[in-house]
Amino acid sequence: DLSFPLPPALVVRAFYNWRVGGALAWELDFWGRYRRAIEAADARLDAAVENYDDALVLLIAEVASTYVEIRTLQQRLEYAQENVELQRESARIAQARRDVAAIDAEVDAPQARSNLFQTEAAIYLLRINLRRAQNRLAVLLGMPPHDLTPLLEPPLGIPTAPPTVALEVPAVLLRRRPDVRRAERLVAAQSAAIGIAESNLYPAISISGALQVEAEDFSRLFNSQAWAGNVGPLFRWNVLNYGRLVNLIRVEDARLQQQIAAYQQTVLRANEEAENAIVGFLLLHERIALLRQSVAEAQEAARVTQAKYRAGRIEFNRVFTIEQFLVSQQDQLAQSQGDLAQSLIQLYKAVGGGWELRLEEPQAGSGFPAAVPPASCSVCCSREPGSTWSSFRLRTWRPPTAARFGTSPSPNWPGPTRTVSSPSRGSTPTRGRRRWPNSTTPSGTWVCGGRS
């Protein structure tokens, strides 16, 4: 047995080792990997802001559209109530003729009451739709659904649109749309992603260093002998993964083509919405003018036929037909007047109006934009008392301020008169060796004119 116990002086039951240090590495951005990453992050931030602006445009358009719908239903109710009074008088005359046993009076009286009951039933349907529209407006305004009649009194009628509307170059107006700008920023972000993928093809060069102090006793931790460190370059290159890296670049390029197609489709859809709103604005003026003449003639015919029926010179079928026609024409007139106001709202929405509220100075102590004076609507038009749109003025877009978003506005953003020829904010830069596509935005001038 060669084992023997060690002396107690040689037995170490505990030891101490103090070490403090740090390391630092810096990768040189030779191939623009981090520059492209910053560009992509900035573009995605811009897209998020535009997404918020698009929600504002939709909200404001929906509020204005619902308000016009309420005023239209009120006007239709007023016409229906007027026709109820007219038909009630015809029913009274028919009943009086029945009481004296006039010819065909036993048919005329039920027919007149049936026509009266039908119009009265239509009034209740209009009231149902009116209350639903009020509830929808209350929800849009952030209030519980309730009757808004006290807030909407007195009835001001359907807002009327101006006879003409002059618009700027289509490319400028469509660039106001947040959805178009959001699609553009997504293209820019994806273009920068290609540069990030291509940078992986090249070697990564970095400089790293480490510094530490180490000692067994804390008292000797900061002695000169305790210091140690190193510094030197690092070189990393994925030479054996070239096939995978090239395929990743192709994937990013395919995503770029997808974003470009989405951008072009957004521009085409914006053009379609604007053209549809312009067509409705132009032709509804002509339709309303003809319907007003039709209503005037129908009112005169109803007055004459009722007078002749009272004198027993014509049968009730003529009165019945004219009164039904008057109800129909007045209802169509009110609906067309509402459609004209809706077409102006849709036109303003089609050119991206409404998100400018985000740029308004908020009230003190409130997170909401400053209130708009009731006599001057700064969102889409100038308004006169009586709910009449007297003009249609589009605002000039202003980039976000540095104080609001923490970054400076881009100096390359085009002004209100610049024609867009590509999705980029400035010239057509090459990002990741891919050039921007040509824009599908048309050129020219829109001038709308109509006759009220």
Written account of the structure:
The chain is mainly alpha-helical and 452 residues long. It has helices spanning 33-99, 105-140, 170-174, 178-199, 242-310, 316-350, 402-405; strands spanning 18-27, 164-166, 204-215, 227-236, 381-384, 388-392, 430-431, 434-435, 447-449. The strands form four sheets. It has a three-stranded antiparallel sheet, with no helix packed on it. The longest helix has 69 residues, at 242-310.
Describe the strand arrangement of the main beta sheet, using strand numbers.
1-3-4
Number of strands: 9
**Could you give the distance between the termini?**
121 Å
Q: What class would the helix/strand composition place it in?
A: mainly alpha
Overall outline? elongated
Radius of gyration: 37 Å
In terms of per-residue confidence, which ranges show pLDDT below 50 for 5 or more consecutive residues?
364-452
| Total of DSSP H or I helical runs spanning 4+ residues | 7
**What's the rounded overall pLDDT mean?**
76
Strand content: 5-15%
